[in-house]
User: Fold these one by one.
Assistant:
Number 1:
Amino acid sequence: MYLPDFDYYAPPDLVEACQLVREFGNSAKILAGGTDLLHKMKHTELAPEAVISLKKLSELKGIRYLPGQGVIIGALTTQNELADSPLLHRKYRSVCEAAHNMANNQIRHIGTVGGNIVNAVPSADLPPILMVLGAKVKLVNIDGERTVPLDEFFLGVHQTIRRDDEILTEIEIPDQKTTGSTSIRFGLRKSGALAVAGAAVAVEMDGETCRSARIVLAAAAPVPMRARAAERLITGQQITPDLLEQAGAAAARESNPRDSIRGSAEYRRDLIRILTRRALHKAITEGHV
Amino acid sequence: MPEVLRDSQGSKHYLINLNVNGDTYTLAVKGNALLVNVLRDWLDFTGTKKGCELGDCGSCTVLIDGKPVNSCMVLAVEAEGHEITTIEGVSPSDKLDRLQESFIANAAIQCGYCTPGMILAGKALLTHNPHPTEMEVREAISGNLCRCTGYVNIVKAILAVADENPPEGGESA
Ligand SMILES: Cc1cc2nc3c(=O)[nH]c(=O)nc-3n(C[C@H](O)[C@H](O)[C@H](O)COP(=O)(O)OP(=O)(O)OC[C@H]3O[C@@H](n4cnc5c(N)ncnc54)[C@H](O)[C@@H]3O)c2cc1C
Ligand code: FES
Ligand code: FES
């Protein structure tokens, strides 16, 4: 299998990268890990005139903590770097677990968090857990930058609010009062299989009472989907097994999955019911796992 | 950014130095050249296999700076500046590596197509984790498909080398 020909650029810094991306507009594609982009180019779904690699941009790498603000994750951080980060292990192990449970080991060594977000597919593993933690993404172009909640980033399959000339540079998980978070995904195999469905949750508990909750479903709609009815059902309530059961059922009702080779809509909806209930139980009882 | 050369048709080629198994090769590759094809077709490292060519099967696994990656998903031009290890370079001498011996001793090879990738994935694991559990071995080879063995003897072969490793610190596999 061969790739269509293209001109290759590896700008040494973000300014030059932004200039190139502006210059080429939609005739170029940005390359991070390439695990999605090269896939599409091999199938000639895409044949960009130029490929602009971000690999040389050291400012887009690494994970750090800014006191009073939050955890900053460079867009080029690979999935295995997320999974193995001591900083994330201490603060949000749930993000490490989500990264560890996706794709396969070889892909996780090259696939990046930025690529997983910008690619914008409903089954992607990282957006749900980042969204429930209130993550924001920074988009930079030659004129300036903007920071947007990940919640508002996705518009449809392969469609986002990112403009052609914008580079996603970092993801911020702000400091927060949540007491627990987790994501659970169901795949047809343990490794190398996209999620048939998934649920990520973050909760703020006060004793037995849930002060606030965020629930995001994977492969349940054209975009990673907030399950707002389920969130409302448990917010301010004393948590009981029956209530979690109802929350799962509410998430299943409001979801809008499709039929595909990986599972029927009906099957997916039932998975969503169970995964939501289990994820809530886990985040409530075990913390950020 | 590597030096750009143009051929008679005006197509761009990029001048790169590839470090494979400790030797440096200077090549002019097109942007679209995949590492797996350069290794196999230009440099004759045909121990690197091609199965799916889409990142699913792991038969094209090589180590880049010690980490297992699918060489079918890497542009050759992006492999410059990194140390690449293929199955041909897994043992520094002309004797087989202990892990290769162990695959033979444990009958972990049938048709052999997955074997180079399996050995490199196992090698990467043992280098940073000399005493893995069975679960960790299974996880380390979870990106490598084998259509013949059922995996049992592959897991055994990797664990057998781990058992021989000195208990604490010491040299690794
Ligand atoms: C075998 C296999 C298994 C997989 N399994 C999973 C899985 O289990 N779960 C899952 O979620 N995904 C999976 N994937 C999909 C893919 O690996 C991930 O989505 C990965 O995170 C993509 O990251 P990347 O860096 O390789 O992206 P790339 O392919 O480099 O880029 C993807 C898209 O995003 C754009 N882009 C990338 N970075 C930026 C940036 N910083 N700014 C602007 N645009 C950018 C690119 O132009 C491209 O359109 C799998 C892929 C393969 C091949
Ligand atoms: S040939 Fe590269 S993963 Fe299958
Ligand atoms: S031995 Fe035949 S594929 Fe593994």
Number 2:
Amino acid sequence: MELDSLYQEVILDHYKHPLNKKLSPTFTAQVHHVNPSCGDEITLNVNITDGIVTNVSWEGVGCSISQASTSIASDLMTGKNLEEALKIVESFSDLMSSKGTMAGNEDVLEDGVALAGVSKFPARIKCALLGWMAFKDAAIQSSKN
Amino acid sequence: MYLDSGATSQKPRQVLDAERNFYEHSNAAVHRGAHLLAEEASIAYEGARQVLADFLNAELDEVIFTKSATESINALAYSFGNSANGSRFALKPGDRIVVSEIEHHANLIPWQQLAKRTGAELVWFSVDSEGRLDLSNLEELINPSTKIVAITHQSNVLGTIVPIKDIVSRAHSVGAVVVLDACQSAPHFAIDVKALEIDFLAFSAHKALGPTGIGILWGRSEFLNSMEPFLTGGSMIESVTMTEAKWAASPKRFEAGVPNMAQAVGFAAAINYLNELGMDNVAKHEQDLTAYALKKFLQLDKVEVIGPKNNIDRGSVISFTIEGIHPHDVGQVLDQYGVAVRTGHHCAWPLMRKLGLVGTTRASFYVYNDEADVDALIDSILEAQKYFKV
Ligand SMILES: Cc1ncc(COP(=O)(O)O)c(C=O)c1O
């Protein structure tokens, strides 16, 4: 069924048991992003010290895709250096705009490749990107601070 | 199964034919040109106005064609905002605009912003847990400082039909005007602006079997002829010099530029189609279908209807939530089963916040829906619950 290409088991797992979904008490930057078309909202904290992402945490409401995607992104970014992290975000953005033609590089995106199917559902791409864009925004703000 | 007529309706062939026929046989700029074609275009366009006037039991010069209900309400808000000091529509600090918590953004933001621009105060009726407006503070809310009461006739989220009689009489007793957002009512049951005693009304053709790009603003002519236009330009003037312009009477005063003619003609075709069905039959059909659907919904496990659960003063919009599944995911699974619904905040974000919801899934019915569509909806909800294992 076509739905299965959207809702991979990995996604449903992250949705039911999201990672890092509890805001850290301290952060080097905090952002709040909303998806005005469906009302999804997240707040995301990053801690970046000496160019290394030491912690990503978040809180928010949204559909399975946005929640799972944010969970995956937060896990993936932790421990990366800033430059590397932003490259991963870019690679995920490319995957999302691939209209189903890319499978995604598992070495780079890890669980993120489970979201490849989302690129075939134009209305859901924004859901999948919410957490990643929030991270990118926070990372850039943090590096300016 | 198209269950999203609350967003926009499908269109009968008669509407498409009417637009095509206009372009093929009568296309010219209305009220301009000395040729027969322009004459025919004007007859078709003014004929459409008559159809709308009759539909609402209004006078011909009170029906203004706009692009949509959104434009109608904005035009009204800007017109009030442009009123000269001393006009009954001029707003100043201390004046009041009354809306409700269940408004669509289109009947909230124009008033919210008008209040900001003029220093007037915006206040609102609250919604209760059943999804009805709490009118217990009617007299306090609509106080003698109130100039405008803008209210929806039927909620696009909850289906609630607002009992406007008391609101209208209170508003008039303090000298305020009543603006009715009829987007979700005029397509579904008979409206008589004289019987309702309201002052202004707006709705869009595209939710009433008609084309996109056309809607109406109706207002009492004694008001319209003393109001400022919002758009200025061709056709809306009585005379013009290099430095001055005098406005034409309504409706021309509010229809600057070459209007959406084919769309107006298509709008009239849609209204004629509804008239042929009979608005009372349309309303009965939807009531029966809603009763059938509500009964089925109330038997579902872990599914909550958001809005009135009985069929009294209620239209054919059913919003619901499913425990453990986000509306966007519900919509996705339903779509997989060929059931088209709307999900999200339905352009009523303040209402969602008030109800403590991130959004709902909404099914809305119209003339072409039947019980088989409701059955398919219910079956697909069960499938969604199975899929997400809730
Ligand atoms: C209650 C209500 N008011 C206003 C509108 C705005 O209508 P339109 O977008 O056609 O201008 C809608 C449409 O969704 C509505 O449901």
